[in-house]
Every structure is written in structure tokens, then in C-alpha cells.
Amino acid sequence: MIRGHVSAREQEPIGVRLRRLRLERGLSQRELAGPGVSYAYISRIEAGTRRPSVKALRTLARKLGVSPEYLETGSELREVDERELRLADAELRLRIGGEPESARDAFEELLREAEVAGDAASAVRARIGLGLVASQLNDPTAAVTHLQEAVDSGEITPVDRPDAFSTLSRAYTLVGQDDRAIELLEWSLHKIDDDDPQNVSAYVRYAGYLSAALTDLSQLERAEHVLTHALDRAEGVSDAYTRVRIYWSVARLAEAEGRPMRALEYARRAVALLEATEDTQHLARAHLLCAWIMGLEEKAAEAVPHLEQAEALLGDSADPTDLAMLRVEQAKVAALLGTPQEAVSRAREALELLGPHHEQQRGSALWALGEGLALERDLAGATEAFRDAVNAFDRTSAWREAAQCCRRWAKVLRDAGRDAEALDALERATDYAVRGHSTHQAPIRR
């Protein structure tokens, strides 16, 4: 691990360090001396009665075969360089090592050091790190605090830190500030237009984020307008990632508009392109999208290979939200295939991973749990899970999902001979379907 403490060599007075290095190399003071650096001068430095000048440091360091920084401080790196190295270590620990708690401790220490040293760039990186850690640990309030401060610093842009801006947008949504999320993403698009108008890839990335956020709020007309403009901007672009983002966004929007076959077509295009790019995380998410669409069509057997691919690609250090959504889709497929024990187990694991936030995703996990419990003939447990799922969808204005969940709930109740309750659930389904229809606008034709 990159050190964060002062070593014994760095605690040496400079005169002690100079004498040690001279003796290690078998040099006398006269032999080390040179133009502008007399042996008497060296003697006073070693005795601690003289501080070497910058010129003397460079001359002595060159003859001793060390850097001037090491001769002066005992460290091969300048303080700012060492801090950058430790920041990189913490970032890699978070992204690759899957160690959010230890990364958080490192970022907190680095933030304190950077603020004391007046190192604004390192302080911003540490704040971004803390925001990303908070997101991984399902603490969107802390993520908002750290990431918004990083954005407000003016040290980062949507182009150079898309992870910070996208995570901040998602965190705003999770704390119920959808308007702030939309505002941030719209500002990001304007910023790219103003500062880097030729960067089509960045524009499409944020258009995808914005269209997804608007789709989740059932603002389909606005989402399609954003996406159509991005498609026009990206006409003729050959960059694979840009086209993947477009296909991904088109798939999501088509599914929201009730056109699953079009959604599946574009999801498959995204998968095909990503397979040629080695971007495993996005490829895993594309496979999850395919599995989700097939699950909606109740094509469980066809969804299984996509889920297997997604799990293999996500690996051991998967993002908790990605892993949770994998478990949700696995639970749904298990229920469709008539294996209730697996459905219940997968759904409960998803709920644990999601924690108290990610309301809409929790609704999906609770729905899957209800399906599994119904197959186990635990009607009371299934009813509670379906009710909690519908309430979660209601709180996030996910009317279409709420309507579908109510219909499944009604079927479970009807099969159990509880017709009056089944009728109530169907009435709720109708109400949600009407609400969803009122926000659904005709798609823009190209």
C-alpha cells in the first residue's frame, strides 16, 4: 500500500542525511566538494549549522546520485507528487480492489492534508473520491455533499470527470431532488457545447444520462427530444462508445414506450459493439438490459445466457447497484422458471445490496420477492412484498411498473380465492395505467 506516514529517512536532519549518503558512497568531504560547494561548507551542513542553498542541493545531489528532493526531504517525491500517488492508490483501491471503507479513510486523510497545504487540485480529487465511496456505500446524502463541493470548486468539468457528474446526478435522484439532477445534466450539456462543441462522444454520453433520468420520471417527450438531438449530432460518428450510448438510450426509451422488440434490437446492437471494445462493465449492463427486456416478455430461457454473461463480466468487485440489479433479474427469471427458493434468495440478496435507497430498484426486488413467495405458497409474505413494491413504484412515479405489479398481485390473490382483494389490486392497476398513459406522449418520428 502507498505509505501515508513519514519514514525514518524523512525524519533525518539534512546534515545527517548528507553525511550518511557520503559515507555510503565512500567519499570524503573534500572528494564531494566542487565549484561553489567547498568541503568546509559541506562540514557545516553536516554539523547542522548551515542550510544548503538550492544550487548546492543540486550539485551535491548530482554527485551523490540522488534527486535534490530526496537530499532535502528524504523522499524521492515532492509532497504534492506523493499526495497524487496516494490519491491514485486510493482510487484504484476503490475501483479495482473493492475496498470502499479503506479508500474512504485514505481520501479523508488526503483531504485534510491537501486543505492544510493549499493543494486545491488534490482536495477536489479527494472530495470526488469520498463522493464515489459514499455512492458505493449507499449514502447518497454524503455523495451529494462531497461531489457538489467538487463541482462548485470549478476545478473539474463534465468532460474530464464524467464519473463525478453522473454519480452526483444519480445521488440527487436518490435523495428525492430530481430537479437538481436534471438541472445538473442540462448544465453539463450546455457546458460541453460552450467549451468543446466538437466533442460528440461527451455530448452523447450526457444526453444518454439526461434521457435516462427523464425516462425514469416518465417525461418521455423531453427524453426523446434530447435523444433525437443527440442522434442528429452523432450522425456519421464512427466511435464505438458513442454509438453504444445511443443504442443503449434508444433501447431504454423504446421499452418505456411499450415497444419491447425495438428495445431488444437496440440492446443487442449495444452488446455487439461492446463485445468488440472490451468494456466489461458496460457490456455487463448491456447484457442485463437484454435480460430485463426478455423478462418483461416472459422469455426466461432466453434471458438466462445474458444473465450468465453479465455475472461473469461483473466479476468479484462489481458495483453494488449493478450486482443488485443482476440479482433482481435472476430472481425474476427463477420465478418464471418455477424455482421459488432461488427467486426468494436472489431477491433478498438484492434488497440487502440496495439498502434503504434506490427506491425504484427496491420496488423491482420486492416484486421479484413477491413472485417467489407466491410460488412457495406464502400468501401473507407475498402480499406484503407486492404491497411494498407497489408503494415503492408509487413514490417514484413509476406508474407502468406499478400497474404491472398490481396485475401480478391480483393474479396471485385470485388464484388463492381472494377475489375481493384481487379486484382491489386490479382497480389500482387501472389507476396506475391511466396515470402512465397521461404522461406518455407520442414518440418523435425520424
Name the assembly state.
Answer: single chain
Broad CATH class of the largest domain = Mainly Alpha
Total domains: 3
Low-confidence stretches: 1-7, 439-446
Say how many strands there are: 0
- Rounded Rg: 29 Å
Describe the structure.
With 446 residues, the protein is mainly alpha-helical. It folds into 3 domains: 8-76, 434 Repressor (Amino-terminal Domain), CATH 1.10.260; 199-315, Serine Threonine Protein Phosphatase 5, Tetratricopeptide repeat (Alpha Horseshoe); 319-446, Serine Threonine Protein Phosphatase 5, Tetratricopeptide repeat. 76% of the residues lie in helices and 0% in strands. It has 24 helices and no strands. It has helices at residues 8-11, 14-24, 29-32, 39-47, 54-64, 68-73, 79-95, 100-117, 120-136, 140-152, 162-174, 178-195, 200-216, 220-233, 240-256, 260-275, 280-296, 300-314, 320-336, 340-354, 359-375, 379-395, 399-415, 419-439. It starts with 7 loop residues before the first helix and ends in a 7-residue tail after the last helix. The model is unreliable at 1-7 and 439-446 (pLDDT under 50).
Write a brief caption for the model.
The chain is mostly helical. It folds into three domains: 8-76, lambda repressor-like DNA-binding domains (434 Repressor (Amino-terminal Domain)), CATH 1.10.260.40; 199-315, Tetratricopeptide repeat domain (Serine Threonine Protein Phosphatase 5, Tetratricopeptide repeat, Alpha Horseshoe); 319-446, Tetratricopeptide repeat domain (Serine Threonine Protein Phosphatase 5, Tetratricopeptide repeat, Alpha Horseshoe).
